[in-house]
Each structure stands twice: as structure tokens, then as C-alpha cells.
Write a structure and sequence with these properties.
One of its GO terms (cellular component) is T cell receptor complex. The protein has about 110 residues and is an all-beta fold. It has strands at about 5-10, 20-30, 35-40, 45-55, 60, 70-75, 80-85, 95-100. The strands form two sheets. The protein has a four-stranded antiparallel β-sheet, with no helix packed on it.
């Protein structure tokens, strides 16, 4: 039986402010173009959308502009989040997620 799943590695990382961190996420899907997401939960329990991507587009939250990006490697089924430079405000638990059901509206 085939199933859709995401796998994160390097769950706990300590990095110095000003450095770069890559949060790893791989996925396996029966769909050819799943929607992929990064979310985070900050120490104050604030849940935030970080980034979205699929085969044709990606976009991030307002705070992600400039310092956050994704490496979407289609052939390796990877959707890694890159933060550079890291700042203390980035302290959070980050989650990679996948949707095979939802259509994200295009930006106008």
C-alpha cells in the first residue's frame, strides 16, 4: 500500500546568530504535484505559516522575505528550508507538511 508522508531530519539544531541553517524535509507522495509547507511554533506558542511550494511556484510569509528560502529538489523529493542569516527571532519548532487535497490561490 502506498502512502503520502514527509520526513524531517536534524530535529534539534543549535546555530549561532548570523549563520545559515538548512532544515531538511523529504517527501513521498502518490500525487505528482503535492503542496508542501513549512510551519513553525514559536516559544510563545504562536503558530505561523513560513513557506509554501509546489512544482510551479513558492512563496513565503511576510517575515520570511529575504532571509528564508526553500530548496525544492523535485527529483530527490526534497523541500528544505534555508534560513540565512539566522537571528534570535527564528527560535521555534519547525514542521514540514504536505497536502494533496488543497489548492493554494495564485497571487494577483
Amino acid at each position: 500500500m502506498l502512502c503520502d508522508k514527509v520526513t524531517q531530519s536534524s530535529l534539534d539544531q543549535m546555530v549561532a546568530s548570523g549563520s545559515e541553517v538548512v532544515l531538511l524535509c523529504t517527501y513521498d507522495s502518490t500525487y505528482s504535484d503535492p503542496g508542501l509547507f513549512w510551519y513553525r511554533i514559536r516559544p510563545d506558542y504562536n503558530f505561523q505559516f513560513v513557506f509554501y511550494g509546489d512544482k510551479s511556484r513558492s512563496h513565503g510569509s511576510y517575515f520570511a522575505k529575504g532571509r528564508f528560502s526553500v530548496k525544492h529538489l523535485l527529483t530527490q523529493k526534497a523541500f528544505h528550508l534555508v534560513i540565512s542569516p539566522v537571528s534570535t527571532e527564528d527560535s521555534a519548532t519547525y514542521y514540514c507538511a504536505m497536502s494533496t487535497m488543497m489548492q493554494v490561490p495564485r497571487k494577483s
